[in-house]
Amino acid sequence: MAVQWYPGHMTKARRELADLMPSQDVIIEVLDARMPAASANPFVAEIRRDKPCVKVLSKADLADPEVTAGWLAHFEADESVLAIATSLAIAGEVKTRVPALCERISRRTRGPTKTTRAVIVGIPNVGKSTLTNTLMGRQVAAVSDKPAVTKVRQQVTLPSGIALSDNPGLLWPRIEDNASTMRLALGGAIPDTALDYESVALFGARFFLEKYPALVMARYKLKALPASATELIEEIGRRRGCLRAGGVIEVYKAASILVHDFRSGALGRISLERPRSMT
Ligand SMILES: Nc1nc2c(ncn2[C@@H]2O[C@H](COP(=O)(O)OP(=O)(O)OP(=O)(O)O)[C@@H](O)[C@H]2O)c(=O)[nH]1
Ligand SMILES: [Mg+2]
Question: Of 166, 188, 213, which residue is a domain's last?
């Protein structure tokens, strides 16, 4: 499944970000804790080079905590990176720790002089505006569970004095057909209208059955583990009454239940990928 979804504002945002980069002291790269590799935009690495970077692993409340700890260690092996796992539940801690990390990492290269300038970047729907609001301690940026809500850059000054900008989410002009696309789609970075729901759900079902069978059994109250991804989706359809006349299972509906149970955390805390040291 190759995805072609590249709204016009992203082209402009990409150019603006590249122009902005030389004046910035720190990049705050927001990654999805459930898929820190798939959610890393190669364009960010390209424009960042070795500029100090704070990697914020958002939505850690939805990810497997052990795997998230592995990712933090993985990222911090890089001298120019500090990493933190965040979630809405620990907003108070995030509000003080993220600015402190920005100051710490930028001073390594800059000395403790003028205002620190930081830029928040990341893929759509990963939680950049949520982070901006948390850091500000009030709602300054619009937040939604749909991707591509922020369309223009927004500049704010944090209570700590850091000059910060929230930016539109960026994806690649063309996302090739691979596991990363499936992960991004499963997590909600690509609008549901731009993808083949059923293949995304099948990808998820296969992964959940293999890596998190106990969570699948518990969520759908199964006595035995389904033998395949297709069987799991059919079983969800039967149990949740996704049936057409004649008892035919509405696969699309059952697929959407599985995807939404993953996105909301109802299925449990799941990480879709692990750092190399943990595989
Ligand atoms: N469970 C959970 N949900 C979160 C967290 N952070 C953000 N979200 C949710 O993720 C969705 C997207 O958040 P936004 O802050 O709008 O994401 P964004 O990166 O600004 O998205 P764009 O502006 O579209 O690029 C919203 O529904 C948030 O409530 C978190 O730590 N945990
Ligand atoms: Mg936003």
Answer: 166
